[in-house]
Amino acid sequence: MTAFVIQRPPDGIAALPLVFDSPHSGTVFPDGFSTPAAKSELKTAWDAHVEDLWSNAVDEGATLIAATFPRVVVDANRAPDDIDPALLDRPWPSRWGTLNPTRYSARGMGLLRRDILPGQPTHHGLLDPLTVKSWIDTLHAPYHAALDSTIKAFRSKHGNVWHIDCHSMKSAGNAMNIDAGKPRPDIVLGDLDGTSAAPDFTQYVKSAFLAAGFTVSVNDPYKGGYLVQRFGRPEQGLHSLQIEINRALYLDESTAEKSPDYPAFKSALSAIGASIAAFVRSNMELA
């Protein structure tokens, strides 16, 4: 299976050094993947339709990269070595390097997802490292290679790149989240406490959402994950910002089906995407 899809600006639209990526909106499971979870449970981990919500940014000159595989197989927003060895049925072979589980793995949400919902396992049992390595090599690695090469090409040409890592979030955290039981704002922006993007970029995006009537939080409860950490180097002209969208704005959260508000919300995001493109265009001219 193909690990990702790329949407580029149509003919006649100049490509901006603006890259959107959606690592958790994939729905295609690799052959042989098995889970005891019901489809309704799997959908709770799905960033439903996020790649579509931002797709109109391509008409403004942005490039959009989206994973085709679900995060419950391997999480593209985690490091490839962020693996809890307790989820494996034998030791990780040393020839593949060492494992470095982080706080995400400690919560059961590292590269491999322990539970689909609190107390409900994602997998039938422990996983064979050979299977996990195949997922890394055929899904996680190609996705990152595509994003990496796209960002590097724009940086080589323009000197600066703006990267938006696109996600959705439940309207309230559950027991697996750091904000369990707390209602969430409409939008959460994460720039790793100001270290993954220039402050003026984060503030510009925040202002665009506020002007559209949305409530916005910055770095609370989400500061940004592995993708923002990997690509955010503002001192080198690489600006990376994570955007989390409250699913209640556009979904029936109980079914993951589009709500009647979907078209209006997508239209609002399209306007914000156009505004972000204008920011990038302006900063290209100033560089």
Structure description:
The chain is α/β, with parallel strands linked by helices. It has a single domain (4-28, 38-77, 131-286), classed as Aminopeptidase, CATH 3.40.630.40. Helix content is 30%, strand content 17%.
- Give me the CATH architecture, please: 3-Layer(aba) Sandwich
How many runs of DSSP E, i.e. beta strands? 11
The share of residues in helices is 25-40%
Unreliable segments of 5+ consecutive residues: none
Radius of gyration: 18 Å
Order of helices and strands: EEHHEHEEHEEHEHEEEH
Q: What is the CATH topology?
A: Aminopeptidase
Assigned CATH class = Alpha Beta
Instruction: Report the structural category.
Output: alpha/beta
User: What's the overall average pLDDT, rounded?
Assistant: 96
Quaternary organization: single chain
Q: Give the CA-based shape.
A: globular
- Name given to the CATH homologous superfamily: Zn-dependent exopeptidases
What is the rounded distance between the termini?
40 Å
Helix count, DSSP H or I runs of 4 or more residues: 7
Largest sheet descriptor: 7 strands, mixed
Which key terms come to mind for this protein?
287 residues, alpha/beta, Aminopeptidase, seven-stranded mixed β-sheet, 7 helices, 17% strand
